[in-house]
Amino acid sequence: MSNGVFLLSLTGQIESAVFPDFDDIYCKYCFTYGSDWAITSGLEEGISQIGKCSRDDRQSFVWNFPLDVTFKSTNPFGWPQIVISVYGLDAFGNDVVRGYGLCHIPIAAGQYKKTLPMFVPESTTLLQKLTCWLTGRRPEYVEPRILGQGEGREVTRVRSQGWVKVCFNTITRDIQQLGYSTRSSSNSHSCLSL
Amino acid sequence: MGDTELVNLHSSSKKEMNYAWGISEADDETSIIKPKPRKRLETVVETPFNLPVSETSSTVDALPPLRKPMPRRRKQKEIVLSPRDLDSPASKPSASDSGFVLSPGRSSAASSHRLEDKGISEADDDDSVEVRTIAFRPQEAIAETSFDNPVQLATFSPVHSFKKPVPSRRKQKLFSPPQELASPVSKTSTSEHVLVHSPGRSSVSSRGRGEEKDSGPSSLPARADTPASISSQHPSVGETSLDGSRSLTSQSDTRSYRERIRDRVRSERDKAASGIVQAHQRSRLKQRLLAKPATSRFDLILQKEERQVEEALQKHETTRSKWKSAAENLRKLPSEQECYDFFTQVWDSETEETEPHTPASVQETEEIEHEGGDQTKLITSEYLGLQDEWDIVEDTIPTCLNMEEVHEREKNLYFYPDSKLVPVEAKLPPDQEPRYPEAEGLYIGTQLPLSGRNRCRVEQRILVSGELKWFGDDGEIISIPDPRSTIYYKPLLFDDVSPLLETQYKDAVPLDLDKHSVMQPIDLNTMYLLGIEIQSIVFTHHPLFSREHVLAKLLNDLYEKHCRRVSLKNEDRLGGRLQALRRARNALRISLEKSADTSQEQKERLRKYNTEIQEVRQMHMSECRRDRQLLGSVLQAWRDLKEVRELQQYINTPYQLRIHAQQISREEADAEQEEWEKLVQAEWEDFKEEKTEEFTKQKREYKKVLAQWKKKRKHMKTRRQQQREKEESIEMDDDSTKDEDSEDEVPMGKEPKPPNPIDWSSLRNELEGQLKECFRPPGEPKLFLELTQSATITIDSENPREQQRRAAVKRCSLFIRLLYNGQEVCRTKNQPLTAQFEVILKEKVAMRIAEWPESLKVELYEEGGSFGRHVVAEVFIPIPSHTTAMEAVQSEPYEFSNTQVITFSHAGVGCGTYSSVLPSSRNIPCLYTTGVIMCCAGWATEKSSGKILSPPEKYCGSHKSDCADLMDIVNLPEGTVDMEKLRKWAESSPLDPNDPSNSSFFYCLKNASMGLTTEPTYFRLDPLQSEFDFCRMEDIINNPRLRLLYLRDRGEPEFRGLRQVPIREKEISEDVFKAYEKRLASPQIEIGTISTDPLDIHRAWGKRFLQEIRQRILKQCRQAQQYRKLEDIVTEDQVPDIGTLGLTFMQWLQPKRPLKPARKERKKVTVQGLGGQDVRLIINVVRAFDVPVRKDIDTVQQSSSSAFHQSQKFSTVPVRPFVEVTFQGVSKRTTTALGNNPTWNQDLQLPMRPPSGDFTPGNLQEMQDTLHLHLFDEIVVDLLEDDRMRDTNIHQRLERHWLGSLSIPFITLYHNARIEGTFKLYSPPVLLGYEREPPHRQFSGYVNEGHSSFSHQDSTFLTIFISVQPALNPPEPFKEQLECGEPPYLQEHLQNWEQEVLALYPHRKPKTLVVDISGKSMCVTRFIRAIAPPEVLEGETTNAHMAARFVSMIPSVAGSVLFPGLFDIWLSSDQVLRLLSGDSEDHAVLLCCYLLYMRRRAWVLLGTGIPHGPTAYVLEHRGEGEYCLWDPASGQFFDVHSSFCPLRKVFCLINDENIWANVQNVELPQHTKFDVNKRSDWWPAFGRGIGSPTTSIQPQVLEYNNTSPAAVQFLQDKIEKHLRDSLVKWRRTARTYWNRYCVAILRKLLPALERETWKLDSAGQVDHIHELQHILGSHKMCGFPINMPYTNMAALTESVRSTGVYYIESPEVEFALAVYIHPYPNNVLSVWIYVASLMRRR
Question: A130 CA to chain B: closest CA distance, Å?
Fold first, then answer.
């Protein structure tokens, strides 16, 4: 008998990224989740090393930055999402944001490889864009976790750039016991019939 | 020349690279290698020098260079590396052994190879450097030379020595450092050198001893002729050595290091020139000494010296003796033998001896190295070093050759490959012809591109080496073709596949939408066996049918039909029914006739019977007619068949129809006749009846019509008559004529004809004819038909066409392909077509299916017949239902057909043609190939268990329900069947429910009615919405978990911060909802029930009212708040204007101040991140000023002891204060300090717990907790009674006396992030037992003597700093504007003005439009109006102090507490009085209004104060630039210059006319100028252009009601009682005694205290001490009055409790407590509580 919580263990890596035309990039990750969720172990936030672009055609940045976190929850509402924000140095050596991306942690146990498309908020005006470029302070999200919510996103304009590849290995525990099914409906359907 | 080098490299060992370089340099063939060393040299140049200087000389200048070596050394190593690779292994140990000193030495040695060259080019700069290198040279040099090829040595050295005549001049000067070493000053250091060197050397010698020995003798001859040249130079060296160290002292420090070195060298050079001779002599001596083998350490040192001298000497010598002479000597080359010996000969005995010398000699060599290449140097040095020992001179010198000679020799040595084209013949073996594979057609790849010159050179080289094998048949060098590919391709990358190509695993998803794709792969472990048995194929038509076949088939069909009909016996059944009906009708009729009263029902029944009889009769007749017709057609067909058989004279089919005619006897015939008659009669009667009925009907109708017609006609007639009359009377009128015409136009209609009377006889005939048609007339024999297949088929017919046909039939064979899911499973054997066009297959196929069945198809193939193999038909066999077992299944016919058109020339009829096959005129329509396959399908059963091996039901063929069958029968399109109608029809129609043929229909009806739902009577906009609801609302409410989640989602405050809602209902306690339900229920509680006290009710009502307003406005704002702006989500820099840009540039230009501390913003912790942390309040209690001191007022002893006290005042510590901090029930205290100006400087940390652990701003804002700081005096009471024990025992008790307190709401702290400053403590006006220090004892810095009349005097101040750790997110200010009550232009103006002010001073936010209680924003000036204050004292006009007192007694609430996260709401004065609460602005407005009424100039001042943050004060102008401030919340009054004024910042002023924003740079009230007329100081919102709105929202007059004195008295008693009880309750451990006498006195005192606050001149000061004299005489008294506005009982209790009066533990303590309430109008109450503790004096 479980003790009324289910566990979601996530291990994985922020493997690599593709950001054409950028160099010296690092990433940060954080999780956003609902109020019924709690992290039982592992790091909620992390910051990777600075990676340089590979010299081949792939132009990829490899971080292999490990993720290892375990959540516990009583309610699938507010399923945790990983928010990855990528920063890098621009031509003047300023630390600027290169992309934001997020996705839900896979809900079913298994291995997943996800490619997160990244985007950055755009400057509102051309003049601002210029000054941003000069000062090295590009528009950034006040809080990257805001991306985990749908609310208020309509006011922003973003440009997409780059991808980040993340690999997730998720293990769940007690979800089934508590009456939730994380397998796809067709699967369960076939299970019933056969 | 590159080639040359290459050759050299290969031929010699690695280490000879050096020589190779040497060559290239010497030959001036600048090769690639040359630039490199040059570059390196520059770095090396200084390094070797640094060390020696520091070691050898103790001069001042030695220090600065010392700083450099370390970093340099690293460089050196880098440099060393490359030569080391090239160096011989022998050189390596020396490096490792020689340790730290050697490493530079080594590098120098290594680099010195290049140094020579460098020496030339940069001689001016680096002379001295080279000198130093020399000292360390030996190991290297020896090591290298030892492996040298003697030949090369011999040849190269001269070159070098020749090449460098220029440096030679300078060599003299270069000798100086070694000289220095030799000098007595530096003796010790030099000895070190020796020590260091020797291991290196020994290691060398151990490794390459043989070589060393070689070097010894071989150098001898070289030295032999140097002395002559050296001798002249010796003295100079000696001179140098003496003065070397001095020279540099004169140099200034500013000069560069290099310069100094150069100078030094120069000076030495000068000196050397003067003293050459002496030095020379000395060195000679030394040399001689050196020659002896060293015996001791001292000797070694000596030797060392000698060596140095020698070095100098040699240097001298070498430089002096011009190279011309040297060259001459050198010209005499050592013989080859010598050279050989030099390296190879083993010198065993001499090692001992030579060893000491070698360093010297080596050093010498290095000197020489500067002049020439390595090689030369080496050799010469060997010579020189051993000069004195060996006098053999002549034959050793590596003579300098002149250039021509050198070149000549070189020519012999070197091979220069020619770049001339090599003839083909030369490349091939002599007797061979060149053969070109290309010409022979062989493929030759493209050759590597190689420039012609190089190619030729290579060829030449090969040619010279004679290796012809490198040449191919065609004379070209054999080489592989160009390996480069011209095609670009991407190499495979294995680890990172393009995302497009990446294979992603996806579960196969069966879709429910389409059954065909639903298939889940069958688990191979389960067995599904489908069996199909194909029995036979029977053609009902085939192209090869002969005519006879066609007819026979027809006959067969008709016969079968006939048989079926006969078996049905429709005739008898219907006949019987008809008879029964007739009987029933007759019976009914009879009964009707009998009884006169015929009910309608019966008539109806009769009529029904009639119609039914009519129907049945007709059906009976038609059925019988059909039977007879069928019989006829069978007979016809048989006749045709016979005819055809006769015609063609052969028989193809076995069919034979036998007709049995039953002959009838006479009687039978009569009976039949009779029966017939009867039948006819019965029919006739019915018929007649029908007809008469019909006739009567017609007649009735006719009559009706006729009547109508007649009526019409009549009407028309009259009309016409009228018209005629009209015509006659009136003249012809257009209208009337028209009228007439129009009427005439109406067709009259024919007169209806009456129905023809029935001609009964003809009808009878007609009926009889019909009957005869339908029924067998009497006398006709009964026919029984029998079709047999007994006819013999004619085997060989004569007819060739028939023969052809038969042959074709015989050829024809058929087989079947079985397809499962469109894939062929199997095919049957080819079976021949029989003559009867049947194929018996009888094949059984069992298949184990691996796919869900979709289709089962049989394809019928025909072979051989008319065409080749072709498909005759495709038949889909339905998948058997999952219950169908193979055993139980019956074979069923499946019809097939084919639309092929075939015609034959033979007897076959073909198909698809309209050929008339029949002899009779009857035509049979076009025939197509048709047939029937007999087969069956079913699932196999497992034998053991009998289980049917079928897949689940849903995969099997759909089972047609009976109901669906019925639908087909009913022939209504499915889906549109109106079951209701059908049922009605079924009810009305006399369907026999027991008839088995109707059973399915009734079944269907029954089912349908079961499922029938009643139509809803309401209408829904979104009818499907409920389908998507998770569950019903009741379920959510009933389920605690769902309810919890639901309420949390709704944002109910009790559940807002709830985390981890348990997943199981049972884990949720029932109590969770209690608070919520209570809150929900609370509004229902009548206010009256809370308290009986009218005063309490008033306050409760005010609170409730504000709560409601809050709810309403929150609702209004919530919508607006939800819209997020870009700034909320994205941080973006503003476009900098010129000002900020200028600032940034200024910053760059400013001098950098790295030590200037930069302010770092504290990181705001996100809400989510705060969850786990504990948030703490950090309170730093710094110090207090003006703490009252203890003063025991003993009225009895006062006079006597006063003098004593006076004298003691300075020496004793009359107070021991400490501060206790309380927050959320947790207390911490500081240590006890001493004196009235104590300093603690102590950090206190208190935990902060928000309600329900929720750190969101919204929740934090609702925190009502207050931080209390209390200042106590700690009194140590000595309890030790026996003085004798004083030495050993301590028995004390601590008491605390409250001195003052400070309360800071958490909200204030939260909004301000931190609070710091000096705060005035609330302290009672009288503190019994304490007094303040007289002003002269206070620090002058804190007291402004001129304003001592102000309130600072009787107050204590506390300096604290409070912050929250970690910092909390301050609430987002609400930006949205609500609906504005002002005209738009005003609104716009005010907003603009506000913006402009904010642009200047972003933090000084003036208020322009504020929200009133209705949620509309109003201009602030409307709030201010002169209003009369209440009459506080009868007969006395209310003064400013009284008004302020009145205002301060209105309970205040912090604005942000009221409306968290929003702007605050301003209440008008009447509202404030009604609600009896308000925030600081409301108080200020009210006070301002009163002051204005008193004709004073007053403003509401907005600013920041301590400790409450944003606050409002009232500024009053007292004339002549005198301003004072009123704190409306406390009623206190400050001069603007008072340093302890709690107001800190002044932002804006508001009065009824205008708003002024503070645009001065200062904002401290002490410094601010308050003259609002000055535009530069105060910027008004309204000016000439636009005026302030005139009407005020304040009422003209406030109504004041007198407070009921009875209620006040009641409350007063209640409070007193309650407080007394509380005090007793707090003192749990001790009994509480009350001093009633004291209480009475205190009660008397309290009203006076209230009066004092009014500052009336008439009210005399009450002398507390005087009043209490009696008590003070007998008791030690400690107490104080507390004053506060009345809010509720709890607040009073808490404030008394916090003073800690009850804390006194003394057993004999007595207490006194008195309460007084001063009633102000409108239920404003000022509560005074006097608490005192008394101790009896002894």
Answer: 9
For residue A47, what pLDDT is reported? 93
Does the pLDDT of residue B198 top 70, yes or no?
no
Which residue's structure tokens are 């053999």?
B392
Complex ipTM value: 0.84
The model scores a pTM over 0.80 = no
B:1409-1438 residues touching chain A, CB 8 A cutoff:
none
Bridge-partner residues for B1433, per DSSP?
none
In whole angstroms, give the CA distance from residue B98 to residue B80. Answer: 15
Which residues, other chains included, contact B744 with Cβ-Cβ below 8 Å and sequence gap of 6+? Answer: none
- Identify which has the larger pLDDT, B875 or B496: B875
Identify whether the C-beta of residue B1173 lies closer than 8 Å to the C-beta of residue B1366: yes
Whether A26 has a pLDDT exceeding 90, the answer reads yes
For residue range B1349-1370, list pLDDT tens digits in order: 334 456 788 888 988 877 776 6
State whether residue B506 sits within 8 Å of chain A by CB: no
Is B491 an interface residue toward A (CB < 8 Å)? no
- Is B501 at the interface with chain A, CB within 8 A? no
pLDDT at B1579 over 50: yes
Q: Which residue has the tokens 């084919």?
A: B898
**Which positions in chain A touch B1132 (Cβ < 8 Å)?**
121, 123-124, 128, 132, 139-140
Residues B1134-1180: tens digit of each pLDDT: 776 777 777 777 777 777 777 877 776 665 555 544 555 678 888 99
Q: Are B1371 and B1311 in contact (CB under 8 A)?
A: yes
| Chain A CB contacts of B510 below 8 Å | 186, 189-190
Check pLDDT > 50 for residue B105: no
CB contact under 8 A, B1129 and A193: no
What's the gap between Cα B147 and its chain centre? Answer: 71
| Mean pLDDT along residues B672-678 | 80
Q: Which contacts of B497-503 are long-range, i.e. CB under 8 A and separated by 24 or more positions?
A: B499/A115
Distance CA B83, CA B501 (A): 53
> Any CB–CB contact under 8 A between B952 and chain A?
yes
Q: Under CATH, which architecture does the A6-193 domain have?
A: Sandwich (2.60)
| Distance, CA of B1697 to CA of B1298 (rounded, Å) | 11
Half-sphere exposure of B1263 (CA within 13 A, CB side): 27
Determine the average pLDDT of the residues in B716-734: 71
Q: State residue B722 phi and psi, 5-degree precision.
A: -60, -45
**Cβ count within 10 A of residue B326:** 27
- Cα–Cα distance measured from residue B980 to residue B1001, given in angstroms and rounded to the nearest whole number: 13
Q: CA of B1409, closest CA in chain A: separation in Å? A: 28
Helix %, strand %, coil % for chain A, to 5? 15, 50, 40
Rounded distance between C-alpha atoms, residue B1695 and residue B1729, angstroms: 10
Coil, helix or strand for B666? helix
Give the one of A5, A125, A156 whose C-beta lies nearest to B1130's C-beta.
Answer: A156
**How big is chain A by its Cα radius of gyration, in Å?**
19
Per-residue pLDDT, B1279 = 80
Question: Which of B489, B490, B496 should one mutate to test binding to chain A, selecting the residue with the greatest count of A CBs within 10 A?
Answer: B496
CB-CB under 8 Å, A143 with B1166: yes
Q: How far away is chain A from the Cα of B952, in angstroms, using its nearest Cα?
A: 8
- Decide if B520 touches A, using CB distance below 8 A: yes
Whether A46 contacts chain B with CB within 8 A = no
Q: Residue B1389: is its pLDDT beyond 70?
A: yes
For residue B1180, the Cα-to-chain-centroid distance in whole angstroms is 40
**Cβ <8 Å between A139 and B1131:** yes
Best residue of B500, B1130, B1256 to probe chain A, by most A CBs closer than 10 Å:
B1130
